[in-house]
Amino acid sequence: MPAIQVVMPQLGESVVEGTIARWLVKPGQRVARDEPLVEVATDKANTEIPSPEAGVVGQLFAAEGAVVAVGGLLCALDAGAAGSAQASPPAAAPASATPAAAMVAAPSISAPAAAAPLVNPMVAAPSNGARAAAPDASPVARNVAQEHGLDLSQVQGSGPGGRITKADVLAHIEGAPVAPLAAPTQPPPTQPPLSQSPTGYDLQQLSKLSNSQIAPAPPPSLPPPPAPAYGPGPVALTLRAYKPPRYTPREGDQVLPFDQRRRLIAEHMVTSPHVPCTAEVDMTNLSRLREEWKKAPETGGKAPSFLVGICRATVQALAEFPRLNAVVQDESLIVRRDVNLGVAVETEKGLLVPVVRRANEKSVLGLARAIDDLAARGRTGKVTADELSGGSFTVSNPGLKGNLFGAAIINQPQVGILRMGEIVKRAVVRTVDSQDAIVIRPMMYLTLSYDHRVIDGVTGNGFLHRVRELVEAAQFAL
Question: What is the DSSP secondary structure assignment for residue 137, as one 8-state letter?
Answer without folding.
Answer: B
